[in-house]
Amino acid sequence: MARTQGSHSDITGPRIRAAAQELFARHGFAAVSMRQIASHVGLQAGALYNYTSDKQSLLVELMQAHMEDLLTAWAAEPKPGDVMGCLEAFVRFHIRYNLQRSDAVFIAYMELRNLTPDNFRQIEAHRRAYEDQLEGVLKDGVEQGVFDVPDTKIAALAVIAMLNGVLTWYRDSGRLSLVEVETIYWDMVRKAVGV
Amino acid sequence: MARTQGSHSDITGPRIRAAAQELFARHGFAAVSMRQIASHVGLQAGALYNYTSDKQSLLVELMQAHMEDLLTAWAAEPKPGDVMGCLEAFVRFHIRYNLQRSDAVFIAYMELRNLTPDNFRQIEAHRRAYEDQLEGVLKDGVEQGVFDVPDTKIAALAVIAMLNGVLTWYRDSGRLSLVEVETIYWDMVRKAVGV
DNA sequence: GTTTTATCTGAACATTTGTTCAGTTATTCA
DNA sequence: TGAATAACTGAACAAATGTTCAGATAAAAC
């Protein structure tokens, strides 16, 4: 048999990407087979090739979509007029946004080595663009005398690394709410870069 | 032919582990084959099984050795009498030690998902023991009124995550020396947890 | 109601995988 | 010198891999 019921093209594609994202995040790109992905969607492996040219493309598309969504979401985030408020907005946005798509974040950080050089450069450029957003806030703050860091680039990387750490331990069922976690990290970031 | 010259058992073992560590760190455990490891040492794949029972054991032994070395090295580190000095010692030690074995650190953080449950628990216990070392310093500091953090456990995780970020960008040939990097991070950590 | 098309199956392909093991050689021990 | 052993080769194994494609079937178009 073939098509079991209705037209599936517009729903099968997203389901494949969702299954791939979950499996890549859990087991790693190299450890997941096309047959496993297909099985999660209820397909045979061959059917995947109606939606992707090969396995690597599946990974690249997930990473690209994630990075672009991240940049778009931050651009759409309302920003206070003062740098201190901007930094707080970034911290809370980053924690909240990344926790809600931890699978995509894990992949974007762990599977860079499975990309071809071209694809790597593209994803890396996106990441740098995001880091530049934070560094811009820090630079403004330093100029205004609100922040004090010896190196805004390193400070930006340090802050992002610290915030990403939340992903390794946060659970929805844990003792702290999302907002409480945000506030704890915001306190530490504010003090770390403050005058 | 077989043995080409001299007795190799005591030198081949370490060379295999070194090759495995480098390849696992660069391409990921699942993406590296036993034949690649053997080829890096100048052996056939079958010869590896004189030194390891299987591929997973090779990974576990690397991770265990790394975590135990880390705990031993920190235990041997001289510690000042005051908590502030202790925290500084931890920050500088962590950056320096981890940068000097970035391959082992990468593996210990990225390949946890390739471990069997038993092995995972063992490595995780080691990691927690290391985190507890830092949390102990923070707790003492809070009691003495030298530090101010709402949650010592989260603060410890945040500090370690921030320090680990160095691994993703530091290069020996970069514009900053190791000591300069240590100092920049120590400044941020000190302010982040300070009163 | 017939033809066309989108969607999927199922089998096949050449490679590669981890692992085993009988045999081979260089070294060590008696 | 001869026997024993440590260290390795090279071939083999079944299983799994990414990918292709002819054919089957349901839905859509006419």
UniProtKB/TrEMBL annotation, chains A, B:
DNA-binding stretch(es), residue numbering of this chain: 33-52
One of the record's GO molecular function terms: DNA-binding transcription factor activity
Coiled coil residues, start to end: none
InterPro entries from the UniProt entry: Homeodomain-like_sf (IPR009057), HTH-type_TetR-like_transc_reg (IPR050109), HTH_TetR (IPR001647), KstR2_TetR_C (IPR041490), Tet_transcr_reg_TetR-rel_C_sf (IPR036271)
Keyword Acetylation assigned: no
Residues of the HTH tetR-type domain: 10-70
SUPFAM superfamilies reported in the protein's UniProt record: Homeodomain-like (SSF46689), Tetracyclin repressor-like, C-terminal domain (SSF48498)
Record keywords, A-Z: DNA-binding, Transcription, Transcription regulation
Pfam families referenced in this protein's UniProt entry, alphabetically: TetR_C_24, TetR_N
Top-level taxon of origin: Bacteria
Record keyword DNA-binding present: yes
Protein name per the record: HTH-type transcriptional repressor KstR2
Species in which this protein is naturally found: Tritonibacter horizontis
Gene field: kstR2_3
